[in-house]
Amino acid sequence: MREIPGYFYDEEKKRYFKVESSRTAPTTSSWSSDNVKKRRLESQEAAAVLRRLSLDKGRLKRSRLMNDALTGGVYAREYGLVRRDVQEAGYAKGIVEKGMIPLADARWRSSTNVRQLCVIGADTKTGLGVAYATLDELLLFSTYIPRDRNGRVHRQLLANYNTPRGNPYSELAVSQLSDIKFHKPSTTVLVSSRTGELESPFTNVRIPGHNRKITDYQINVIAPGPAASSTVCAIGSNRGILQWDAERDPKWLAPSSHATAYAEIYRDIFALEFLNEHPSILLAGGRPGHLSIKDVRDRNDDTRDVSKRLGSPITHIKSLNEHHILVSGLKNSMDVYDVRMLRNTNSSSSSTSRRSNNNNARENRHHPTLAHVLPVIQFPEYRNGPHIQIGLDVDKDNGIVAAAHDDGKVTVYSTKTGHRLKSPDIDQIRSHRGVIQSLQFETMPRDNHPTLFVGNGSNLHAYSFGVRNMDDEA
């Protein structure tokens, strides 16, 4: 309020009072000159205190020691502040660059990054890893991954191994190659094509259909079957999900009927994952953005498996444990959900509810009721706007996620908190050929921790927990 000489403004009564001499005014009156002067001094002192606090706030800085992942976490605990991802932060900080190997010789240098990648570390006898990759989705390359005693990768080390062939590379023409996966129980490399074919060393599988054109169906992704299952793999296509059983040809798993509006949920499947500890439970997602849970043993009612609709197409699904799954997609979305909460509100374990669902199956197929649940963990710093094909993988044992961003960088996150973790060597990854499309954690022979393989350019780069040189260990 405007100050008037000889008057003061009473905030409570919202009016001006004339200042009266303290000799004539009552002692307790607010308009006496002594009380007015006292309040003015108190206001000036309070303003001075606020100015000092504001200046001190700018001078105070958090100790660098407290910013350290391990030491800072220990001291924070002493002050009563518990950081849930101290172990994950310490592990991420200890990941170092361990060399690289070209995935193709000079004839096939590409102007883009590695499109698809599959690293296999199953040969414990020789200690050699094997990588399968494509640079242009037309040729499939394979190469050995030799490593020294410190786990560093270098092509010249192949001279120390008795490889089956003199040339460490092999090539296979695959038109419109869309995915590469390894089925551990049968030691089979599965390669899919968008033309609707799935190739392996043993057989060539086509999507079943009658009187279809070659462009009617395309395979987007493969999910190898678990060891405890007879399923070789689940196949995600532009029309739904197929199951390839070891004893029979691929069969449609979902949707059960393509003539219904319910098939829109399975229009494009980009992500498939079998749930941990549940070899018969399949998680699926894609466009338009439905996350669904499917029991591969049940082919009757699809609507019971629909669980949640997200705000954008799904690009990756990773099962973290028996109950938690990580889901990422476009529009910078990456979250962790609890599958126990992802239930169709029409489904129930009681026999009465099951009979009700069967009676209303046709209605539910056209109007599936989805449960609205919130994620248990969010990743606010994840950045992927428009890219369907973008790298992401999870190290479940150590609780970290390696995710490519749409600016050509790679970032590490904690699966416990969703926080971005500092990893100096991984934070230095830069791609000048667009987004990193291929990331994979793989435990190499005789190792205790997995190695992160990054397809940057035409090369395969390795990052693992340890030291750069053996002399640094002391």
From TrEMBL:
Residue ranges annotated as compositionally biased, kind Low complexity, are: 343-361
Xref: InterPro entries: CUL4-DDB1_E3_ligase_receptor, WD40/YVTN_repeat-like_dom_sf, WD40_repeat_dom_sf
Disordered: annotated span: 343-367
Sorted alphabetically, the keyword list is: Repeat, WD repeat
| Source organism, top-level taxon | Eukaryota
Protein name, UniProt field: Myocyte-specific enhancer factor 2d
* Species, as recorded: Apiospora hydei
Its taxonomic placement starts with: Eukaryota, Fungi, Dikarya, Ascomycota, Pezizomycotina
